[in-house]
């Protein structure tokens, strides 16, 4: 069967530009005619839901930590409830999570009245010290991640402000631009003016050992174990009950047969609308999600790096078109790109070493919840004792009242 483009474009071209245009139009037509219906994945949505409680606590705590002296008037925090997405009053939140933040009285101005202030508790300060130790222990991993983010970027340069915005996604410490850049001048150079997108981090030297993707390393390991040369390729697996149309399945099979393009390879010669460039874009997105500590990143966050990583404006359609590799969750009203292979059900199986920080924080929260449960239990017991003590007295009062009436 002839393509609908055959009428307008002959099979052979004397002009290479015309040939390229034909190929691009054919590729665009093939993609636009194949639709993939988004389907909900309850297990992966639940993975996001599982983190909801501790993320809320982390937001409130960061708000206090970012204040001078790590203290803030209670009413100031109360005024920020909407931005923090806090559904209860600030004081109620602190009571529900004992041992994280302390309330004390102080003056906003020297001669003003005493008002409630919030400060970091001793228990939370201890956790922050443990966090520093975990960062220090994993410093080589953090440096490698930062190198990889720069190695994938056009001209090996990324906006420093953008990197600061995604520091929590990749597990970078708050002061990584100050401490790591100055400590590793052989890898990084910071230049430009801080703020307003005019500061940039540049890769100084290229390390061929670091310039290997997760997929390439996996293929090398399989080759070593089997003794057979394994080519790098994406793991494509749809959850049970998730089906795609025959035409799309065939398109995917053809696409998978294209050679894998490393996200660290020079692709300046590739056209942005080619199938090869899509293969490379999927590789970059796969690698970015693999470098993130939760193996998932909000789509708007990834969209900030379109220029650096040569993403098209419609890059988010990749997550549904290649639904055997990625899942795009809509949980919480935010589009979140997730790496399917990193999860088993709602649990991460491909755990980043920096997840130890989250584990420690969740332990801290569990201790706080146990403390509150114990306090509530003691209150109930005291209330029962008070009722028992009051019962004989109330009985005596009843007898006096009856005697007086008679």
From TrEMBL:
Q: What InterPro entries does this protein's entry cite?
A: PORR_domain, PORR_fam
What Pfam families does the database record attribute to this sequence? PORR
Domain PORR, first and last residues per copy: 40-367
- Name used for this protein in its record: PORR domain-containing protein
Taxonomic lineage is: Eukaryota, Viridiplantae, Streptophyta, Embryophyta, Tracheophyta
């Amino acid at each position: 069967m002839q393509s609908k483009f055959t009428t307008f474009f002959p099979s052979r071209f004397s002009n290479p530009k015309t040939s390229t245009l034909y190929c691009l139009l054919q590729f665009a037509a093939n993609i636009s005619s194949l639709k993939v219906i988004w389907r909900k994945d309850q297990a992966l949505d639940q993975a996001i839901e599982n983190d909801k409680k501790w993320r809320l606590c982390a937001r409130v705590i960061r708000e206090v930590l970012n204040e001078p002296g790590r203290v803030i008037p209670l009413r100031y925090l109360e005024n920020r409830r909407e931005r923090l997405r806090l559904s209860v009053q600030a004081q109620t939140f602190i009571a529900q999570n004992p041992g994280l933040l302390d309330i004390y009285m102080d003056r906003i101005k020297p001669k003003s009245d005493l008002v409630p202030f919030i400060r970091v508790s001793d228990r939370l300060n201890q956790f922050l010290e443990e966090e520093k130790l975990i960062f220090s222990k994993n410093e080589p991993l953090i440096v490698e991640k930062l190198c990889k983010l720069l190695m994938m970027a056009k001209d090996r340069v990324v906006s420093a402000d953008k990197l600061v915005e995604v520091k929590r996604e990749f597990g970078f410490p708050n002061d990584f631009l100050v401490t790591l850049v100055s400590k590793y001048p052989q890898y990084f150079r910071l230049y430009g003016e801080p703020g307003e997108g005019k500061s940039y981090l540049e890769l100084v030297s290229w390390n061929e050992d670091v310039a290997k993707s997760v997929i390439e390393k996996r293929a090398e390991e399989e080759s070593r174990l089997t003794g057979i040369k394994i080519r790098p390729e994406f793991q494509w697996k749809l959850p049970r009950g998730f089906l795609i149309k025959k035409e799309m399945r065939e398109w995917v099979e053809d696409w998978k047969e294209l050679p894998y393009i490393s996200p660290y390879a020079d692709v300046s010669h590739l056209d942005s609308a080619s199938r090869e460039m899509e293969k490379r874009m999927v590789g970059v997105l796969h690698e970015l999600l693999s470098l993130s500590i939760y193996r998932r990143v909000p789509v708007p966050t990834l969209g900030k790096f379109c220029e650096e990583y040569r993403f098209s404006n419609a890059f988010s359609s990749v997550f549904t078109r290649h639904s055997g590799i990625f899942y795009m969750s809509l949980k919480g009203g935010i589009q979140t790109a997730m790496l399917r292979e990193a999860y088993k059900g709602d649990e991460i199986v491909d755990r980043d070493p920096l997840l130890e920080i989250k584990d420690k924080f969740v332990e801290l929260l569990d201790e706080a919840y146990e403390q509150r449960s114990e306090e509530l239990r003691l209150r109930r017991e005291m209330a029962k004792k008070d009722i028992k003590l009051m019962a004989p007295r109330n009985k005596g009062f009843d007898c006096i009242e009856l005697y007086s009436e008679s």
